[in-house]
Design a protein that fits this description.
Layout (H helix, E strand, L loop, with lengths): L10 H21 L1 H5 L2 H20 L3
Length: 62
């Protein structure tokens, strides 16, 4: 029995997975709002660092 199998997904299946994970994130955010609101600075820091990384990667792409 192979636990880790190689799979290939179609583009629309990946879209469904992304919608599912986005919905899960929204639901968890609503459920744990009081805990997550206290860490708002962390979410902004994560957003800013990843945005700067991808902007720099886009600009300096060869």
């Amino acid at each position: 029995m192979r636990i880790l199998k190689t799979r290939t997904f179609q583009w629309w299946e990946i879209s469904l997975i992304k919608i599912c994970l986005l919905s899960l994130g929204i639901l968890l955010g609503l459920y744990f709002y009081n805990i997550l609101a206290g860490l708002l600075w962390l979410w902004w820091a994560l957003f800013a660092t990843t945005a700067i990384y991808f902007i720099a990667r886009f600009i300096y792409e060869k």
